[in-house]
Amino acid sequence: TNNFVIPEDKDVTLDLNGFTLTGGDTHAILNRGKLCIKDSSGNGEIVASKANTSALRNGDNAVCVIDGGTFTRTDAVDNKWHTVENFGTMTFNGGKVIAEDGQSFAIVNGWNYINPGEQKATMTINNIEMKAGPNGLKNCAGGTLTMNGGTLHCTGYWGLSNDSTGIATINGGNITSDSYIAISNGGAKMEINGGTFTGPQGSLYVQNYAQGTVVMGGSYGNETVEFMRNYCPEGYTATLKDGMVVVSKD
Fold first, then answer.
1. Strand ranges (DSSP E) for 4-127?
2. Which of 69, 112, 175, 219 has the fewest CB atoms within 10 Å, measured from its CB?
3. Contact 68/39 with Cβ under 8 angstroms?
Protein backbone atom coordinates (compact mmCIF):
# COMPACT_ATOMS: atom_id res chain seq x y z
CA THR A 1 0.00 0.00 0.00
CA ASN A 2 1.55 3.26 -1.11
CA ASN A 3 1.28 6.26 -3.41
CA PHE A 4 3.96 6.32 -6.08
CA VAL A 5 5.04 9.47 -7.92
CA ILE A 6 7.27 9.17 -11.00
CA PRO A 7 9.25 12.45 -11.30
CA GLU A 8 9.59 14.30 -14.59
CA ASP A 9 13.20 13.24 -15.14
CA LYS A 10 12.68 9.51 -14.54
CA ASP A 11 12.09 6.61 -16.96
CA VAL A 12 10.56 3.71 -15.01
CA THR A 13 9.35 0.21 -15.85
CA LEU A 14 7.02 -1.31 -13.28
CA ASP A 15 6.44 -5.06 -13.45
CA LEU A 16 3.55 -5.93 -11.15
CA ASN A 17 4.59 -9.60 -11.37
CA GLY A 18 1.21 -10.75 -10.04
CA PHE A 19 1.21 -8.47 -6.99
CA THR A 20 -1.32 -5.79 -5.99
CA LEU A 21 -0.47 -2.14 -5.44
CA THR A 22 -3.14 -0.33 -3.41
CA GLY A 23 -3.15 3.46 -3.23
CA GLY A 24 -3.57 5.36 -0.01
CA ASP A 25 -4.90 8.90 0.37
CA THR A 26 -3.91 10.01 -3.15
CA HIS A 27 -3.54 8.43 -6.59
CA ALA A 28 -1.98 4.98 -6.45
CA ILE A 29 0.37 6.06 -9.26
CA LEU A 30 0.96 9.63 -10.41
CA ASN A 31 3.24 9.69 -13.43
CA ARG A 32 5.03 12.90 -14.36
CA GLY A 33 7.85 11.23 -16.31
CA LYS A 34 8.02 8.09 -18.46
CA LEU A 35 6.38 4.92 -17.22
CA CYS A 36 5.83 1.43 -18.64
CA ILE A 37 3.55 -0.93 -16.69
CA LYS A 38 3.85 -4.69 -17.21
CA ASP A 39 2.58 -7.79 -15.43
CA SER A 40 4.80 -10.74 -16.26
CA SER A 41 3.02 -13.22 -13.96
CA GLY A 42 -0.57 -12.13 -14.54
CA ASN A 43 -3.23 -11.16 -11.96
CA GLY A 44 -1.35 -8.00 -10.92
CA GLU A 45 -3.52 -5.05 -9.92
CA ILE A 46 -3.29 -1.31 -9.24
CA VAL A 47 -6.14 -0.25 -6.99
CA ALA A 48 -7.59 3.14 -6.03
CA SER A 49 -8.89 3.04 -2.47
CA LYS A 50 -10.25 6.54 -1.81
CA ALA A 51 -12.74 8.93 -3.41
CA ASN A 52 -11.33 11.49 -5.87
CA THR A 53 -8.22 9.43 -6.51
CA SER A 54 -7.33 7.27 -9.50
CA ALA A 55 -5.43 4.02 -9.82
CA LEU A 56 -3.32 5.72 -12.49
CA ARG A 57 -3.05 9.41 -13.33
CA ASN A 58 -0.77 10.32 -16.21
CA GLY A 59 0.14 13.98 -15.83
CA ASP A 60 0.69 16.82 -18.32
CA ASN A 61 3.44 15.93 -20.82
CA ALA A 62 4.01 12.54 -19.16
CA VAL A 63 4.31 9.34 -21.22
CA CYS A 64 2.78 6.04 -20.13
CA VAL A 65 2.70 2.66 -21.90
CA ILE A 66 0.46 -0.05 -20.45
CA ASP A 67 1.31 -3.61 -21.45
CA GLY A 68 -0.50 -5.42 -18.64
CA GLY A 69 -2.13 -5.26 -15.23
CA THR A 70 -5.64 -4.58 -13.96
CA PHE A 71 -6.69 -1.09 -12.86
CA THR A 72 -9.62 -0.96 -10.47
CA ARG A 73 -11.11 0.44 -7.22
CA THR A 74 -11.89 -0.98 -3.81
CA ASP A 75 -15.50 -1.35 -2.67
CA ALA A 76 -15.10 1.28 0.06
CA VAL A 77 -18.10 3.56 0.70
CA ASP A 78 -18.15 6.60 -1.64
CA ASN A 79 -14.97 5.47 -3.42
CA LYS A 80 -15.93 7.17 -6.68
CA TRP A 81 -13.70 8.70 -9.34
CA HIS A 82 -12.24 7.98 -12.75
CA THR A 83 -10.01 4.93 -12.43
CA VAL A 84 -7.53 5.89 -15.18
CA GLU A 85 -6.87 9.52 -16.16
CA ASN A 86 -4.63 10.77 -18.95
CA PHE A 87 -3.40 14.32 -19.47
CA GLY A 88 -0.25 13.39 -21.39
CA THR A 89 0.46 10.55 -23.83
CA MET A 90 -0.87 7.09 -22.99
CA THR A 91 -0.80 3.84 -24.97
CA PHE A 92 -2.68 0.67 -24.10
CA ASN A 93 -1.12 -2.48 -25.56
CA GLY A 94 -2.95 -4.63 -23.03
CA GLY A 95 -4.29 -4.55 -19.52
CA LYS A 96 -7.74 -4.34 -17.97
CA VAL A 97 -9.72 -1.47 -16.50
CA ILE A 98 -12.50 -2.66 -14.21
CA ALA A 99 -14.47 0.27 -12.78
CA GLU A 100 -17.92 -0.23 -11.28
CA ASP A 101 -18.45 2.55 -8.75
CA GLY A 102 -21.90 3.33 -10.17
CA GLN A 103 -21.08 6.92 -11.12
CA SER A 104 -17.71 7.73 -12.67
CA PHE A 105 -16.19 7.08 -16.08
CA ALA A 106 -13.71 4.22 -16.06
CA ILE A 107 -11.23 6.15 -18.24
CA VAL A 108 -10.94 9.83 -19.12
CA ASN A 109 -8.64 11.27 -21.76
CA GLY A 110 -8.33 15.03 -21.50
CA TRP A 111 -10.00 17.60 -19.30
CA ASN A 112 -13.57 16.98 -18.12
CA TYR A 113 -15.53 20.25 -17.70
CA ILE A 114 -12.28 22.28 -17.81
CA ASN A 115 -10.90 24.34 -20.71
CA PRO A 116 -7.30 23.16 -21.13
CA GLY A 117 -6.28 25.89 -23.56
CA GLU A 118 -3.52 24.61 -25.84
CA GLN A 119 -2.82 21.49 -23.77
CA LYS A 120 -3.43 18.14 -25.43
CA ALA A 121 -3.95 14.60 -24.18
CA THR A 122 -3.27 11.72 -26.57
CA MET A 123 -4.45 8.14 -26.04
CA THR A 124 -3.87 5.16 -28.33
CA ILE A 125 -5.64 1.86 -27.65
CA ASN A 126 -4.15 -1.14 -29.43
CA ASN A 127 -5.60 -3.62 -26.98
CA ILE A 128 -7.62 -3.31 -23.77
CA GLU A 129 -10.34 -5.01 -21.77
CA MET A 130 -12.56 -2.41 -20.11
CA LYS A 131 -15.59 -3.27 -18.00
CA ALA A 132 -17.37 -0.22 -16.62
CA GLY A 133 -20.47 0.38 -14.54
CA PRO A 134 -22.08 2.52 -15.61
CA ASN A 135 -19.86 4.76 -17.75
CA GLY A 136 -17.03 3.75 -20.08
CA LEU A 137 -14.36 5.90 -21.69
CA LYS A 138 -14.77 9.67 -22.08
CA ASN A 139 -12.63 11.58 -24.57
CA CYS A 140 -12.82 15.10 -23.19
CA ALA A 141 -11.63 18.63 -24.01
CA GLY A 142 -8.17 18.57 -25.58
CA GLY A 143 -8.30 14.80 -26.03
CA THR A 144 -7.21 12.88 -29.12
CA LEU A 145 -8.17 9.21 -29.07
CA THR A 146 -7.23 6.46 -31.53
CA MET A 147 -8.70 3.00 -30.99
CA ASN A 148 -7.26 0.16 -33.05
CA GLY A 149 -8.49 -2.84 -31.05
CA GLY A 150 -9.70 -4.13 -27.71
CA THR A 151 -13.06 -4.05 -25.94
CA LEU A 152 -14.89 -1.20 -24.23
CA HIS A 153 -17.92 -2.55 -22.36
CA CYS A 154 -20.23 -0.53 -20.13
CA THR A 155 -23.42 -1.34 -18.25
CA GLY A 156 -24.86 2.18 -18.59
CA TYR A 157 -25.08 4.91 -21.21
CA TRP A 158 -21.96 5.00 -23.41
CA GLY A 159 -19.07 2.62 -23.94
CA LEU A 160 -17.33 5.60 -25.54
CA SER A 161 -18.29 9.27 -25.23
CA ASN A 162 -16.48 11.79 -27.43
CA ASP A 163 -17.18 15.25 -26.07
CA SER A 164 -16.28 18.94 -26.24
CA THR A 165 -13.15 19.47 -28.39
CA GLY A 166 -12.33 15.76 -28.38
CA ILE A 167 -11.16 14.08 -31.59
CA ALA A 168 -11.70 10.32 -31.92
CA THR A 169 -10.62 7.87 -34.61
CA ILE A 170 -11.86 4.28 -34.36
CA ASN A 171 -10.14 1.76 -36.61
CA GLY A 172 -11.21 -1.46 -34.86
CA GLY A 173 -12.23 -3.15 -31.66
CA ASN A 174 -15.56 -3.71 -29.94
CA ILE A 175 -17.66 -1.14 -28.07
CA THR A 176 -20.84 -2.22 -26.29
CA SER A 177 -23.44 -0.83 -23.90
CA ASP A 178 -25.74 -3.11 -21.93
CA SER A 179 -28.40 -0.44 -21.35
CA TYR A 180 -28.31 2.24 -24.04
CA ILE A 181 -26.06 3.10 -27.02
CA ALA A 182 -22.45 2.07 -27.66
CA ILE A 183 -21.01 5.41 -28.84
CA SER A 184 -21.92 9.04 -28.29
CA ASN A 185 -20.32 11.72 -30.44
CA GLY A 186 -20.59 15.30 -29.26
CA GLY A 187 -17.01 16.32 -29.95
CA ALA A 188 -15.01 18.16 -32.57
CA LYS A 189 -14.57 15.14 -34.85
CA MET A 190 -15.20 11.41 -34.98
CA GLU A 191 -14.05 9.10 -37.77
CA ILE A 192 -14.98 5.41 -37.72
CA ASN A 193 -13.10 3.10 -40.10
CA GLY A 194 -13.85 -0.28 -38.53
CA GLY A 195 -14.96 -2.18 -35.47
CA THR A 196 -18.13 -3.72 -34.04
CA PHE A 197 -20.58 -1.65 -32.01
CA THR A 198 -23.85 -2.47 -30.31
CA GLY A 199 -26.33 -1.44 -27.64
CA PRO A 200 -29.99 -2.25 -27.02
CA GLN A 201 -31.05 1.18 -28.31
CA GLY A 202 -28.40 1.54 -31.01
CA SER A 203 -24.72 1.78 -31.80
CA LEU A 204 -24.17 5.48 -32.53
CA TYR A 205 -25.75 8.61 -31.11
CA VAL A 206 -24.76 11.94 -32.66
CA GLN A 207 -25.36 14.86 -30.33
CA ASN A 208 -26.83 18.00 -31.92
CA TYR A 209 -23.65 19.91 -31.04
CA ALA A 210 -21.27 17.42 -32.67
CA GLN A 211 -19.06 19.12 -35.24
CA GLY A 212 -18.20 16.20 -37.51
CA THR A 213 -19.03 12.51 -37.83
CA VAL A 214 -17.64 10.41 -40.70
CA VAL A 215 -18.24 6.66 -41.01
CA MET A 216 -16.22 4.61 -43.49
CA GLY A 217 -16.41 1.16 -41.93
CA GLY A 218 -17.66 -0.95 -39.06
CA SER A 219 -20.63 -3.10 -38.09
CA TYR A 220 -23.53 -1.59 -36.13
CA GLY A 221 -26.22 -3.36 -34.13
CA ASN A 222 -29.77 -2.03 -33.70
CA GLU A 223 -29.29 0.71 -36.30
CA THR A 224 -30.99 1.36 -39.62
CA VAL A 225 -29.34 1.53 -43.01
CA GLU A 226 -30.87 4.97 -43.56
CA PHE A 227 -29.42 6.38 -40.35
CA MET A 228 -25.88 5.13 -41.00
CA ARG A 229 -25.91 6.40 -44.60
CA ASN A 230 -26.31 9.91 -43.21
CA TYR A 231 -22.68 9.75 -42.04
CA CYS A 232 -21.11 7.91 -44.97
CA PRO A 233 -19.01 10.09 -47.30
CA GLU A 234 -19.12 9.76 -51.06
CA GLY A 235 -17.97 6.32 -52.16
CA TYR A 236 -19.22 4.53 -49.03
CA THR A 237 -22.58 2.99 -48.17
CA ALA A 238 -24.41 1.00 -45.50
CA THR A 239 -26.08 -2.37 -46.02
CA LEU A 240 -27.84 -4.89 -43.79
CA LYS A 241 -25.96 -8.16 -43.27
CA ASP A 242 -26.89 -10.86 -40.74
CA GLY A 243 -28.78 -8.39 -38.59
CA MET A 244 -25.98 -5.79 -38.50
CA VAL A 245 -25.66 -2.63 -40.54
CA VAL A 246 -22.26 -2.81 -42.23
CA VAL A 247 -20.52 0.24 -43.74
CA SER A 248 -18.11 -0.32 -46.61
CA LYS A 249 -16.94 1.13 -49.91
CA ASP A 250 -19.48 1.12 -52.73
1. 4-6, 11-15, 20-22, 29-31, 34-38, 45-48, 56-58, 63-66, 70-73, 84-86, 89-92, 96-99, 105-109, 121-125
2. 112
3. yes
d(CA 152, CA 130): 5
Distance, CA of 168 to CA of 187 (rounded, Å): 8
- Please state whether 218 falls in left (phi above 0), alpha (psi between -120 and 50) or beta: left
Measured CA to CA, the distance from residue 247 to residue 206 in angstroms comes to 17
Rounded Cα distance between 2 and 133, Å, is: 26
Q: Which of 202, 98, 83 shows the shortest CA–CA distance to 152?
A: 98
Q: Report, as ranges of residue numbers, the positions in the chain whose pLDDT lies below 70.
A: none
Distance between CA atoms of residues 11 and 240, nearest Å: 49
Look at residues 5, 11, 10 and name the one whose alpha carbon lies nearest to residue 31: 5
Residues 78-122: pLDDT tens digits? 899 999 999 999 999 999 999 998 899 999 999 998 899 999 999
- Residue 234: the pLDDT is 97
Dist CA 100 CA 138 (whole Å): 15
Q: For residue 216, how far is the Cα from the chain centroid?
A: 21
